[in-house]
Amino acid sequence: MKKSYFLFLVLLSAFTAQAQELRLKKGAINENLPVIDSIGQDLSIYLPSDFDPAGSWPVLFVCDFSGDTNRALRYFQGAAELNGYILAASRKLVDSTQLTDGVLRFARSLEFLHGILPLDKDRLYAAGIGKGGEFASLMPNLVRAVSGVLTAGAGPPNTELLNAREPFDYVALLSRSDYRYPNMRLAEEPLSRKRLDHHQLYYNGSGGLPDEDLLGLGVATLTLLAIKAGVIPTDSVLVRETLQGYRSRSDVMRQQGDVLVAYNMLEQAIDLFDGLADTGDLKDAQRSLRRTSAYRTRKREAANLALKEEILRQDYAYYLEEDVLNFNLDNLGWWRHQLETIAKYKAGASPEDQRLGLRLEGYLRALADDYIRIARTAGEQPDDDALVLLHMLKTLIDPEVPANYLTVISLASKYDDFGTALFYLEELLKTGYADRQRLYDLEHTALLRISPEFNALVEKYLQEARYEIPE
Predict the structure, then answer these.
(1) Sorted alphabetically, which keywords does the UniProt record give (predicted)?
(2) Quick one: 310 and 163 in the same domain?
(3) Is the Cα torsion angle 425, 431, 436, 442 positive or negative in sign?
């Protein structure tokens, strides 16, 4: 049975100016810290099981915008344990409505951690998933103490904000099915010009998060970059094991037919281990892979689809802006056709076609979400016309998500467009939606929900209506 260890730290907090005793469990997530300072109370901390307060430890500060901080920490927990990193996250970062508020909370949280734990001041890293990762990539330019970034399922940093005089380490893990993949590829050259030591580790799949092994390699890459920079001494065992991890993953990907991912792993490894280990075998494997017909075929196919993808993305951006500005509901048929085309790509025989379909769908979803956010917050009042059109489009993109139908029903009823409201009510009920109470409580539908047509549809699909239906 694994023993439980407890760490007793008696310290002077810079925030409360009084001695506080923290009891932190190793190998587990510690939350609800018994401290007076509000920043400390909002923190969750993970200490690796071999944590020793006499040492100096790197930290991954996880920027979570999902609202489930502990879930985000659990995702990084295995990689942190394997590589000897402390994890920390603030439960209140998601509540920061302005970038400035988020940056200040991040900086104060990092300062608090530095006051209670023996952190390596040269190895303070920001990390995150999705939007949290994109926020994390801003931190090195806004909080000088941050020396690197690790992201999973997130887009690249804004290269225009990067300062070549203050470079940082950047490791990104991203699916080739993610709509941000083309942006990440385009960012590789600008990141090099800005002198960032960057490593993008791509993987295949349906666009989900990287597996634990790849995440572990990502964290180990941060450690090796610190070794290359002379921040910490060389660890020959770590160098050898991480090199083998890169090579093994490339071999597995090649055997599975994922030759472009296999090539990427070799390419990143050659760059990473230059000066740390002999990369001759890696270069030989790269040359061997490059000569195969499978690699040449996949590379050519991916290049052709990349051009098609760029054209389609430009079309989507142009026409959606036009439709929103002009409240052009007549163009919904064209959007339906685009989504049918995307569905064909997703069902295609070629894996590259399938990934293209997933990326296009993700791009269109993100584009619509951006416009929805703008329509809700751009002026003193939300732009209801834009919101109606955009949520109609979202019912085509995500036909199983009830919230989009409900928004259309509510806003259409607000302006007495009961025909549209009833149409989307039936479309919603066809999906199997069964929350009768929510339908009768929906905002702006006071007149609609007492109508015979509304209740007839509810009775047809849910067997029982609230109000009597005249014969």
Answers:
(1) Signal
(2) no
(3) negative
